[in-house]
Amino acid sequence: MTRSAITTPPPGATLPEPLPGAPAPGSPLGSHYSRCFGCGDRHPTGLHLSAVTPDGVTVTAEFTVGEAHQGAPGLAHGGVLAAAMDEVIGMSVWLFQRPYVTGRLETDYLAPVPVGTTLHLRAWCTGMSGRKAYLEAEGRAGAPDGPVAVRAAALFIEVGMEHFAEHGDAQAILAEHHEYEVNP
Ligand SMILES: CCCCCCCC/C=C\CCCCCCCC(=O)SCCNC(=O)CCNC(=O)[C@H](O)C(C)(C)COP(=O)(O)OP(=O)(O)OC[C@H]1O[C@@H](n2cnc3c(N)ncnc32)[C@H](O)[C@@H]1OP(=O)(O)O
C-alpha cells in the first residue's frame, strides 16, 4: 500500500484491544442504518455489505459487484470500490464503541473488478492517537485468499454522537437507534 504520511500512525500510536462487550467472534455485525449505501438492507442499489468480526478488532465482509455498481461496461466503478473500503473500515472502527468519521481515504486499484465478482474485504487498525484512528483495508477477488484488487488506507477522526444529529437527520437516527439521546 502506498499510504501517505497522513494515514501512517505517528510514533507513540497504540493498537486497540478488543472491548469487553465486543461482538462474539464470527457473529454478524448488522447494519448501523437501514438506508446506508454500504450496509443498509433498505437501500435498493447499495452494497449490502455483510460483515463479521473474527476477533473483536478487525472486520471481514463480502460485497458482490452488481449492475448498479458499474463504471466501464461490466466493471466496478472505482468510487463504488472506495465506498466499500470506507464502509468496512467504518465498521471496524465502530467496534471500539466510539463514533468516528472518515477524514481521509486513500485507495489503490490493482485489478479491474467485473460485475458478478464477490470481493472479500478485510479492515484493520494500524494505530490510534488521540481522536485519530489509522486504518487499512483490502478487497480480494473471488475468495478470502484471492488476488488483491483494491487496497486502502484511512484516517478516521472521532466525533461526538451529536455530529450525526447536528449535521444529519436526527429523526432517522431516533427511529433506528432507540438508545440514542438527541439532547442528552
Ligand atoms: C444513524 C447513525 C447513528 C450513528 C451511528 C454511528 C456509528 C457508525 C457505525 C458504523 C459506521 C459504518 C460506516 C459508515 C460510513 C463510513 C464513514 C463515512 O463515510 S463518514 C462520512 C464522510 N466523512 C465526513 O463527512 C467527515 C466530514 N468532516 C468533518 O466532519 C470534520 O472535518 C472532522 C469531524 C473530520 C474534523 O473536524 P473537527 O472540527 O472535529 O476537528 P479538526 O480539528 O478539524 O480535526 C481534528 C484533527 O484531525 C486532523 N484532520 C481532520 N481531517 C483531516 C484530513 N482530511 N487530513 C489530515 N488530517 C485531518 C486535523 O488536522 C486535526 O489534527 P490535530 O488535532 O490538529 O493534530
TrEMBL record:
GO terms for molecular function: hydrolase activity. Keywords: Apoptosis, Cell membrane, Cell projection, Cytoplasm, Fatty acid metabolism, Hydrolase, Lipid metabolism, Membrane, Transit peptide. Residues 1-26 are annotated as: Disordered. GO terms for cellular component: cytoplasm; membrane. Residues 8-26 have a biased composition (Pro residues). It catalyses: hexadecanoyl-CoA + H2O = hexadecanoate + CoA + H(+); (9Z)-octadecenoyl-CoA + H2O = (9Z)-octadecenoate + CoA + H(+); octanoyl-CoA + H2O = octanoate + CoA + H(+); dodecanoyl-CoA + H2O = dodecanoate + CoA + H(+). Its EC number is 3.1.2.2. It is found in: Cell projection, Ruffle membrane; Cytoplasm; Membrane. Its main location: membrane. One of its GO terms (biological process) is fatty acid metabolic process. Residues 74-142 form the Thioesterase domain. InterPro entries: HotDog_dom_sf, THEM4/THEM5_acyl-CoA_thioest, Thioestr_dom. It is a peripheral membrane protein. It is an enzyme of class 3 (hydrolase). SUPFAM superfamilies: Thioesterase/thiol ester dehydrase-isomerase. Belongs to the THEM4/THEM5 thioesterase family. This is Acyl-coenzyme A thioesterase THEM4. It comes from Planomonospora sphaerica.
